[in-house]
Amino acid sequence: MSKVIVIGGGPAGMIAAIMAGRNNNEVTLIEKNKELGKKLKITGGGRCNITNMRDIEVFLDKIIVNHKFLYSSIYSFTNLDLLEFFKKHNLEFKVEEDLKVYPQNDKSEEIIEVLKKELKKSNVKVIYEKKFKDLLIEDNKLKGVILENKETIKGDKVIISTGGMSYPKTGSSGEVYKILKKHGHTINKIYPSLVPLIVKEKWIKNLQGVSMKDVKVTSKYSKNKKIEMTGDILFAHFGITGPVILNISSYLNKMLQEKEVDITIDFTPNIKEEEISKIIRKNPNKAIYNNLREILPLNFIKEILNYLDIDKKPNELNKQDEKRIIESIKKLKLTCIGTRSINEAIVTSGGISVKEINSSTMESKIINNLYFAGEVIDIEGLTGGYNLQIAFSTGYLAGISV
Questions:
Q1: Where residue 166 falls among pLDDT bands split at 50, 70, 90?
Q2: pLDDT tier at 322 (50, 70, 90 boundaries)?
Q3: Contact (CB, 8 A) for 390 and 351
Q4: How does residue 46 score in pLDDT terms, banded at 50, 70 and 90?
Q5: pLDDT per residue over 338-353, tens digit each?
Q6: 3-state secondary structure the chain
Q7: What span, in angstroms and rounded, lies between the C-alpha atoms of 253 and 112?
Q8: Using one digit for the tens of pLDDT, what is the confidence trace for 53-87?
Q9: How far is CA 191 from the centre of its chain?
Q10: Domains of the chain, each with CATH number or no CATH
Q11: Cα separation of 309 and 363, whole Å?
Q12: For the RsdA/BaiN/AoA(So)-like insert domain, which residue ranges apply (predicted)?
């Protein structure tokens, strides 16, 4: 039996503590907040998109940073294993668009309550409102942790599951990176990911609040690589957001630190240009926006026409102006000049280098008996339940390995 200390009571930390406790270890879970799962509570707008039901091979393709590192953890505790874990507590789930999985009652609190029950069942001691300040290392051996006010807790093994730097109000402030760097770990540069994008074009702010479904967004994210995604978009005063933009941001965030990036948006990917031309001229004596409102939001079309400075009826429209309207619908170019701050990012890009972690156990290759789980590691998936599954899977593997 080992004395195991888990730092951070998010999904990765809770499942790690549960599994370590099940293996008859003496486990202490330290959480800096007054409650467990503070970030988990707000994920998915409080509905908790817990995982995704894609086959594991396809699932791994949705992990865009260091997905090979996750083979052992994801296969050790799959999406099906995760749901089975909760179903034993009579928790029911539903599968929605894009194979996203939510609790049947849309309540993240139900997920947290099950985890808390399992922590109690596994005899895990939970300490609240204590900040982790350092590792306790004596004679080059890990002996426990140091908390605020120089309080020490002795232990044989430590699991770090503090999260990254996104949503800092939930406790994931990123302070742990300085501690780990001091002890020899490499911390890859931190970027906001799954984050709204800021655009240069000022007229876009007039579209604030306009949302559109199933638009296609295309961009180059390196010299020879292009990304194309389809999903929902929402215009904001600073630029653009919505699921498809958040996912695109994961490919553009590093590049945007150095230069502007162009994106192209097709607002009607399932409607050809010829068909749009017919719709524009469908009722020749009506306003153009009245004809186009059958395929696009009225306020969007009005703003596009205003931006193009076109105030004509279809029977007055020349071919050049018609082409400009169609291009604004099918090939609107916007210039991204940055991302919103990491405070608005869903996940952190960057973190502890996976080269310094044993992917089969989640143990540090730098410090014996130190383990990692969750977003604190340089691993990152798209939206859709992938990042929560990463947290649970890496936490599970760390927990059974201590």
A1: confident
A2: very high
A3: no
A4: confident
A5: 999 999 999 999 999 9
A6: CCEEEEECCCHHHHHHHHHHHHCCCEEEEEECCCCCCHHHHHHHHHCCCCEECCCHHHHHHCEEECHHHHHHHHHHCCHHHHHHHHHCCCCCEEECHHHEEEECCCCHHHHHHHHHHHHHHCCCEEEECCCEEEEEEECCEEEEEEEHHHCEEECCEEEECCCCCCCHHHCCCCHHHHHHHHCCCCEEEEEEECCCEEECCHHHHHHCCCEEEEEEEEEECCCCCEEEEEEEEEECCCEEECHHHHHHHHHHCCHHHCCCEEEEEECCCCCCHHHHHHHHCCCCCCCHHHHHCCCCCHHHHHHHHHHHCCCCCHHHCCHHHHHHHHHHHHCEEEEEEEECCHHHCCEEEEEECHHHECCCCCEECCCCCEEECHHHECCEECCCCHHHHHHHHHHHHHHHHC
A7: 31
A8: 999 999 999 999 999 999 999 999 999 999 999 99
A9: 12
A10: 3-191+347-401 (3.50.50.60), 197-339 (no CATH)
A11: 61
A12: 191-347
CA atoms of 336 and 326, how far apart (whole Å): 22
> What mean pLDDT is predicted for residues 242-250?
96
Q: How many CA atoms lie within 13 A of 39 on its CB side?
A: 32
pLDDT at 219: 96
pLDDT surpassing 70 at residue 171 = no
